[in-house]
Amino acid sequence: MIRLELSGVQKQVREEFREWLAANPPPRVADDSSLDAFQRIGKAWQSTLSEGGWVAVHWPSQYGGRDLSLVEQAIVQEELVSSQAPQILGLFGLSMVGPVLIRFGSDEQKSQHLAPILNASKVWCQGFSEPGAGSDLAAVSTRAEKADGGFLVNGQKTWTSFAHVADWCFLLCRTGKDGSRYSQLSYLLVDMKSPGIRTRPLAQATGDEEFNEVFFDNVFVPDENVVGKVGQGWEIAISTLMHERVILTFARQLQSERLLQHALQSDSSDARGLLEKRALVREVVEACGVRALAYKHLFQYASGTEPGSEGSLDKLGWSESFQRLTRHLFRSEGLESLWQTSEAQRYLYSRGRTLAAGTSEIQRNIIAERVLGLPRLHVKYGEGKS
Ligand SMILES: Cc1cc2nc3c(=O)[nH]c(=O)nc-3n(C[C@H](O)[C@H](O)[C@H](O)COP(=O)(O)OP(=O)(O)OC[C@H]3O[C@@H](n4cnc5c(N)ncnc54)[C@H](O)[C@@H]3O)c2cc1C
């Protein structure tokens, strides 16, 4: 049985943050806000939160946090969602490259980047996926060739969310030719204003242009921007993904639950409404399970374990359930929109959530092999056919 109980300190953090929120009410984001407005408001709100010391409370105090654990960070997120606060803008920095720099970064990298990540004065994007390397991330072909004092980067990334507004990119690229394909990879911090970078927006099904293709043409990256060692990129990239699947997923799960609550409160006196509510009950059960599991993992991390493959359970559970919920709401009529998008847009947006941060198939593979310890199956497609 999983027994999860908050400590006195954790309950006190909740009270203290509630008081702060009452004194600093979050701005409202209109349902029909543009992506531009969403970004502007999210940036300003993160800066206000950071002034109050409420961004990344789990980070060490020497880097602007409060020396608390991920459980207290989860409590802060719960209160933000309850108060209907807008989403903060710097999620890639806070939940991906920030923790990686704290663990693997040099002192100079920490002092240059961590404070601007906290207050959103610098926004980051994730340069991992390429046209020929998504699920098989180790196949990246963007190259960084050694040059005097640094590297020259050439290649293309794709699906890079917010690259068009980002100040910095954490880039996975190939720096070597020898050894295993994993040991040829390195993790670079790239200033998005460097000469030779071109971004081209990609329109999503919602009509928004949130992600991009990014082209690198002889982009110079100084030696001091390599995180860890040359050739350590795969280990650092996996650590980035583990953090993404756990921390970012928790925030998204809370938003799904708010949406679910709203749907359950809608008028349902007729037979159709009752049938719809019955379908939603499954999602309530699922949401309780996903949140309990997420908390179980957060308690583990609070006692010193680094995020690992178990985060795939959280990510799979949340993204599949979010997709079912938005499909359901899209089909039902008359629900007042809760977020800034219409039901149809939210439904379209949800389609990408079982792809981003690793597809559901990949999460199932990870769960089977690395969480449950099942043997790896090598299936040759087409085998047995004449
Ligand atoms: C909304 C959104 C935002 C994103 N933002 C970013 C970002 O900011 N930065 C970034 O780097 N990337 C980003 N991505 C890219 C995302 O990480 C990739 O889409 C994802 O990893 C899948 O890669 P792919 O699209 O190349 O699909 P592929 O890897 O080509 O997969 C195609 C299909 O084959 C299946 N498949 C592949 N391999 C296996 C296998 N071994 N076993 C079973 N099935 C398999 C997949 O599940 C999928 O259904 C984003 C994607 C989306 C949708």
Low-confidence stretches: 335-340, 381-386
- Shape category: globular
Strand content: 5-15%
User: What is the first-to-last residue Cα distance?
Assistant: 51 Å
Instruction: Report mean pLDDT, rounded to a whole number.
Output: 89
Under CATH, the homologous superfamily of the largest domain reads: Butyryl-CoA Dehydrogenase, subunit A, domain 3
Q: Determine Rg (CA atoms, Å).
A: 21 Å
Q: Element order, helices and strands?
A: HHHHHEEEEEEEHHHHH
Q: What is the name of the CATH class of the largest domain? A: Mainly Alpha
What is the domain tally?
Answer: 3
Please, how many helices?
A: 10
What small ligands are held by the chains? Answer: flavin-adenine dinucleotide
In the CATH hierarchy, what is the architecture of the largest domain at level 2?
Up-down Bundle
- Class from secondary-structure proportions: alpha+beta
Percent of residues in helices comes to 40-55%
In spatial order, strands of the major sheet run 2-3-7-6
Strands, count: 7
